[in-house]
Design goal:
With about 425 residues, the protein is an alpha/beta fold. About 35% of the residues lie in helices and about 20% in strands. The chain has 14 helices and 17 strands. α2 packs across α14, α4 crosses α14 and α12 crosses α14. The radius of gyration is 22 Å and the shape is globular. The structure holds glyoxylic acid and manganese (II) ion (2 copies).
């Protein structure tokens, strides 16, 4: 490891990093110690403004693209060199924790701070990105900011997505962009020489193995759908069951059919229905419309493809009384991270004498999309009992700092290539 990489890693400030997590956790704080910081909400805007205030203290330049991804850049010595990027997201689940996403943003900022304090000059710029709407909890699908940034889906395609209150992403995005008027406008998909994302593991493996650093090998595949069931509303007391077009009854039948299809004895396939909108949503009216989400995941490319392809025919077959519309909203095949970036992360952990292991990610991340456009890798740190997407999500300050040290050293190595 270069001396400057070791020196900068040594300047990672555990107390500052923890303090910043606690400050961010106040934005959208909810009972139980968690956060609700929906994408493009007032809370998301407040988090962006706080990040930009910290960036301004160091004089880093900031820019924003058309979907609100925020970029904080520390200049390199070669003005023409493509940057090495790092980052994650600041939005949260509705009942989310204090570390999912925000850790990767604050660890990236900490890496930039540590480089400043160690007086390290890198050849390439190092750029921190806070991706818009990674969670997809308010505006499905997840990893939207990186998906649009990398050109996997055009911006126009997502502008009409609505949240549970009928608010359009177009309008929430306009309000968010208006709140950071001083950020320079930036084009999508500017050349990048590499990307490293730090994240809490969101699973129990590191804690169980007593390892501080996870060197992430890749991310499993996903398929997301919106399924809409349309029937007819009627009086709950007077309408015979045989005459009903009960959308909720059919929705339940579809969910059961899909659950059965997704079942595997090894418990590798992940199947989740986590969002359901029922109309008119009244105890004594038969439901005339139900919209629900399906989230399927598997690490094997052929398996996730087959699981996804079966959804629409199975849903149509299971519905007995109503019309069914199936809309795919996300189709990501499993990704394998770059050997060079993974190697740089592993070497940094070794050189810093931190216990590490290789592991695959069950959760999805913006690194999935960045892996399509540049050499990409991820660093995991342990979280308590693997709990995530839950207010009880917790992590240790020393582990967060260790991950930020590995990140700092690996970024410097890559930024001098
Ligand atoms: C991101 O939170 C995911 O759904 O994996
Ligand atoms: Mn996350
Ligand atoms: Mn998440």
């Amino acid at each position: 490891m270069r001396e400057e990489a070791r020196a900068a890693a040594g300047r990672v400030d555990e107390a500052r990093l923890w303090q910043r997590h606690m400050e961010m956790a106040r934005i959208g704080a909810i009972p139980g110690g968690g956060v609700n910081r929906a994408a493009l909400s007032a809370e998301d805007i407040a988090a962006r403004q706080l990040l930009l205030a910290w960036a301004a203290q160091r004089g880093f330049s900031v820019s924003v693209d058309g979907i609100g991804n925020l970029f904080v850049r520390r200049a390199g010595s070669d003005a023409n060199a493509a940057p090495i990027m790092t980052g994650s997201h600041m939005d949260s689940q509705p009942s989310g924790g204090r570390f999912d996403g925000i850790y990767g943003v604050l660890a990236g900022l900490e890496a930039l701070e540590a480089m400043e304090e160690a007086g390290v000059a890198t050849r390439r710029p190092v750029e921190l990105v806070a991706w818009t709407n990674e969670e997809g909890g308010r505006f499905p699908p997840c990893t939207m900011g990186s998906m649009v940034y990398t050109g996997a889906r055009p911006l126009a395609d997502v502008l009409e997505v609505t949240d549970n209150d009928g608010i359009k992403l177009r309008d929430a995005l306009a309000a968010t962009l208006a709140a950071t008027p001083n950020a320079r406008e930036r084009a999508f998909n500017a050349p990048a020489a590499g990307y490293i994302e730090a994240h809490i593991e969101q699973g129990p493996l590191l804690e169980k193995a007593r390892k501080t650093i996870g060197v992430v090998t890749g991310i499993q595949g996903l398929r997301w759908f919106n399924i809409e069931v349309s029937g007819e509303t009627a009086h709950a007391g007077t309408t015979p069951l045989g005459l009903r077009k009960d959308a909720l009854r059919d929705a339940i039948a579809i969910i059961e059919a899909l659950r059965e299809h997704a079942h595997d004895f090894a418990d590798v396939t992940r199947f989740t229905v986590g969002r359901m909108l029922v109309s008119p949503n009244s105890p004594n009216s038969v439901a005339n419309h139900v919209l629900f989400s399906v989230d399927l995941r598997h690490p094997d490319p052929a398996k996730i493809r087959a699981l996804g392809e079966a959804v629409a025919p199975l849903a149509r077959k299971a519905a007995k009384f109503c019309e069914v519309k199936v809309t795919p909203t996300l189709a990501d095949d499993p990704c394998v991270f770059d050997a060079g970036v993974t190697g740089a992360i592993e070497s940094a952990a070794q050189e810093l004498s931190l216990p590490y292991m290789r592991l695959a990610s069950g959760a999805s991340h913006d690194a999935m999309y960045m892996a399509r456009v540049c050499p990409t890798g991820m660093i995991f740190v342990p979280c308590e009992k693997g709990i995530s997407h839950n207010v009880a999500e917790n992590a240790q300050p020393a582990d967060l700092a260790a991950g930020a040290r590995v990140l700092t050293a690996a970024l410097i190595e890559l930024a001098n290539n």
